[in-house]
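Sync notes, pocket subgroup
Present: LS, DG
LS reminded everyone that the earlier model was apo-only. Rerun requested with NDP included. Inputs:
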Amino acid sequence: MTGKIEVLSPVDGTVLATVPSERPEAVAAIVRELREQQREWEAIGPAARAGWLRKLREWLLAERDRIADVLQSESGKPRAEAEIELPFVAEAISYFARHAMEFLADERVRPSGLLSTPKRMMRIHRPFPVVGVISPWNFPLLIPGADAITALLAGAAVLLKPSEVTPLTALELQRGWQEIGAPAVFAVVTGTGETGAAVVENVDYVQFTGSTHTGQAIAHRCVDRMIPYSLELGGKDPAIVLADADLDRAVRGIAWGALLNSGQACISVERVYVEAPVYDRFVTNLVDYIAGLRQGDDTMHYSVDIGAMATPAQRAIAQRHIDEAVAAGATALIGGGDAGGPFLAPTVLVDVDESMTCLREETFGPTIPIVKVADAAEAIRRANQSVYGLSASVWTRDPARGAQIARALEVGAVNINDTVTNLFEMGLPHGGWKRSGSGARLGGAAGLHKYTRQQAVTAPRIRPLPWEPLWYPYGPRKARVVRRLLAAVATTGSASMWRLPARTART
Ligand code: NDP
């Protein structure tokens, strides 16, 4: 029997809605239906699909206030942050719809050698029939929206399984798809991890965003099923502040990068390495700056900077990292934890080292642990020590040094004198290295190609003979001709290796 999930307001715990927790059989049935519908969706081609996505964009823009209400109610974000996500998805639609024809066009392949010279050859991008998008609670529209629209444009049908914490925004996306009258190739299935696992069991490709732990379990299952996957996982992003940095900008940028969504972002700044000559000034200025930020619940008033923690469980993890650091000798220069109800105060930690969870594990909370380093080399070494490799930032007035440090960091993205910005560029990939993931989202043509299988198609250029030189029957005379032909084809090695041994040649 289908269970139920109560969706709670993170701010006051009231029940916002009740949604079904779908059973595996129901998920399998939805996937079967999507698979049926997908054939026609692929057949209409990228231009027609782009047309439907543009209609969805218009619908989203018309509904932006209502969607921000829903998103804010289930996530506890400040209003300003609740309103960022929809324009991002709208822009993703604009960009990928504009380029879909070009990115998905059949590609003519030129002959690489003699054997294929008489052939016409094409590389064709054919979609995976059904893509399962499994998403977390921290960006309830941006993440599933970006993943779903690119998969749909590529020609796949999409089954979205949002987090059980924030399913209501995803249901808005489904409402939009239905209200514009689009083909039934997009569905949302609500539920727990069990529902997510059923998605993995039935779809043809898994696009997962969430914790490294769950991502690994999903990858194992995908390998068993021999289906491809893309995993966008956790992070522990370092910021490196060099002595020549514009400290005002570094303070503001790092505060925003660390505290955005109460630090509940995969690309949050979670560690800061500061060169010794500016360490004291940076720390003092950062603490002063954070003291001026406002925290609370601001439905529709744009009156706070930092909102609530999305769940009591996440709040407890962040609090534990703070408490463990302090117990081990760290100092909280501001914050330290409880700010009443679901709020966790922004916390600057100093006297920290990598033996502490706050510097080693993903905190996903409003903490900023800061480490003094002798030089950039030490900062790079410590930044790379993490098992994660999502993104990083470097703060310096010297662009050449910034670029040089970027190349030394083992992460999927580096923003120089900024944080998060790579995520706003549709032409750049967003993906993690090491335990932060496998694959990437967005990134120009690759953002659509990932949801397709390459198909090679060859056909004779001219009316063919009834036989080909490589076909049966084999025999010594033919072998000589074929060997000569292959010698001509070979671009490496000497032609003599293709000569038949004398004995064979005589028979
Ligand atoms: P989880 O891994 O707990 O859950 C992510 C999604 O997977 C949810 O929809 C969840 O459902 C579902 N799920 C849980 N178990 C299974 C399973 N066995 N099979 C299939 N699906 C399952 O992550 P969180 O929701 O807690 O999100 C926070 C994490 O996401 C952080 O680690 C963060 O760094 C990462 N993240 C990564 C991003 C990136 O782009 N790299 C971006 C944003 C977040 P349910 O909610 O019902 O349990």
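DG: The first strand starts at residue 3 and ends at 8.
LS: The two ends are 75 Å apart (CA to CA).
Action: DG to write up.
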